[in-house]
Amino acid sequence: MSTTLPVVLIVDDEIRSLETLRRTLEEAFEVFTAASTDEALAILQNEFIHVVISDQRMPDMTGVAFLKLVRERWPEVARIILSGYADNADIIAAINEAGIYQYLLKPWRPDALLLTVQGAARLATLQRENELLNVELKAGEPWMRSRVAAKRQQASDAFAMHSIVRAANSPLNRICALLTKVAVHDIAVLIEGESGVGKELLARALHYASHRAQRPFVGENCAALPEQLLESVLFGHKRGAFTGAYQDHVGLFQQADGGTIFLDEIGETSPAFQAKLLRVLQEGEIRPVGSSRSLRVDVRVVSATNRTLADLVQQGRFREDLYYRLSPFAVLTPPLRERPEDIPLIALDLLERMRDSFGLPDALFSPATLVCLQNYRWPGNVRQLKNEIQRMLALADAPVLGPELLSPQVLHAGDESQQQELAFLGSVRGDLKERLDQLESQIIRETLTRHRWNKTRAASELGLSRVGLRNKLVRYGLEPKA
């Protein structure tokens, strides 16, 4: 349920350089590193890589020779080479022999590197999509058409709303039902919720439940890129538009034409970028950076934020007109602590996906471990749960994952929670009715605080009408004074 990032492999025999590149790219990409070409080839054999970045001068073979080998075995992977020498012969050899996407000179600039790798990742994705399209166009035989249709259906099923892991009585069921209903209507959707709750997973499911399911779904984390780079990634740019723009770049809006674009962490964007995005949504047109011509695009926008956009509007930090453009339909995704019934199922699903890579194909949780996992509040949501399971697998010496493998805060969460509950109940005074009133007042206050005093959402969670909630607020003296 974490955000799906392009995968980059960096190859460099200098460890310091390797780490610098990794730190520069790791927020926007999933990054693998290799200190030798042999190590890199092993990673390519076992992982789905979009982009390979190689240093030119390495002891076992040159970067050009290595990337030529990559081109022969994995032609769909985009290739970038780094060199400290501006030798025209090297550049020509790199382009001609290894089909290099870009030749970057050292010292490289972080923003130029990010932009280049973003473009390479998009190219790799488009090449894979084109290969599939070519297969479809050549599929004259009925059996081939059936095979292609089956592959498409398999991809659609993998991201379908019913494939989202949750319990039969999960609070997430209501969110999925609402998104399924709105999916058939071509309107923008805003998904709010804490980091790690699976907002991108819901956005993908929305896309595959819509009439745009056979067209691209593309996404970008708006908080991961500087403003100029984000504008280029989304809208594209023309060659020479700025330093480092060595060729035209097709932006995500154009790549998503006919499909869906997912803008994650939209609340982190600057006012200047918000103004440009508003124009795109109003006009249905994009203008690549450095271009004098606008391009028409037909894209459904699904945005997400871990903040409350309405509050940012009140604070003057987010444009009100853009907010209303993005949120004809808005949903709030509940955090993991509000759906404890989902935790065992999600944990089991994550374990099944990860155990083979740790050499423990038969790994399973003990019943006591599942109880501990369910008792913890998971402030980092599914992302934190995944990290905890990875930790357990790394420490395990046997297939059964017992509570002793859990980190201390997770292991003792149940005890602490029970002690806090007993302490709170012991502090409540009065007869049974008075105590129940105090508990109800506390529950209402906590729910309103969590929903930032949005009474519609709080009433919905509590199973009350707005009038019923208002009466209780008056009864318990919780209505804020004007």
Automatic annotation (TrEMBL):
Residues in the signal sequence: none
Q: Which organism is it from?
A: Rivihabitans pingtungensis
Which CDD domains does this UniProt record tie to the protein?
A: AAA
Gene3D superfamilies from the UniProt entry:
1.10.8.60, 3.40.50.2300, Homeodomain-like (1.10.10.60), P-loop containing nucleotide triphosphate hydrolases (3.40.50.300)
Q: Which residues form the Response regulatory domain?
A: 7-121
Q: Which residues carry this modification: 4-aspartylphosphate?
A: 55
Which biological processes are named by the entry's GO terms?
A: phosphorelay signal transduction system; regulation of DNA-templated transcription
Q: What is this protein called?
A: Two-component system response regulator HupR/HoxA
